[in-house]
Amino acid sequence: MYLDGLQHFGRDMGSPVRIVSGSARGTRLAGLAGKDIRPTSDRVREAIFSIIYSRLGELTGKSVLDLYAGTGALALEALSRGAQRAVVIDAARQAIRTIEFNARACRLAEGVQILCGTVAEQLARLPEDQPFDLIFFDPPYDKGLVEKTLQLIGDLDVLAAGGLVCAESSARESIPTIVAGQGATLVLADSRIYGATAVHFFTHSDAEDSHE
């Protein structure tokens, strides 16, 4: 089924993706077609947010950044659970249209700023005095983009003090345990494997010292 040129998840795209919890709970999201599209499943998203809560507490009032955002599911899930604002970035026009559609469907459009362009160029344009409490990114697998994106986040110092980075990769991809950026040093705090997907959590180096 197509709505405004957007495809809903059906038999050809796997299980439907829905918002798991919060104000938009149960809202079905439009998807993206393509062999390289692998939306984070509801089960994995729920596991991710359980870990986020254990480290950040409630999301009320927090700011979120979602890179390589795809359908925007992670940012919208965070907003549904009480986050104050989200900035989402993707280079694909189809993804931007899908995120706009999904934000409206969730009645969360007012809290989302949607930017079209590469992660590098759009990160460089963000205000320096507005870091994010929670940063998601799920880049194409096995292309070395996890380390490169962590380096950008550290160089530009876009993670707030006490904040958390959640990065997805293939389970076989090698991930650094520490990334020293020009503005901040990020350290690996936790990693989990869910089938072919791995999820990694990074914090500021001093925050991880205090967490221990």
UniProtKB/TrEMBL annotation:
PROSITE patterns: N6_MTASE (PS00092)
Gene Ontology biological process: rRNA methylation
SUPFAM superfamilies in the cross-refs: S-adenosyl-L-methionine-dependent methyltransferases (SSF53335)
Pfam families membership: Cons_hypoth95
GO molecular function, one term: nucleic acid binding
Top-rank taxon: Bacteria
Keywords: Methyltransferase, Transferase
UniProt-listed NCBIfam families: 16S rRNA (guanine(966)-N(2))-methyltransferase RsmD
Protein name per the record: 16S rRNA (Guanine(966)-N(2))-methyltransferase RsmD
Origin organism lineage: Bacteria, Pseudomonadati, Thermodesulfobacteriota, Desulfuromonadia, Desulfuromonadales
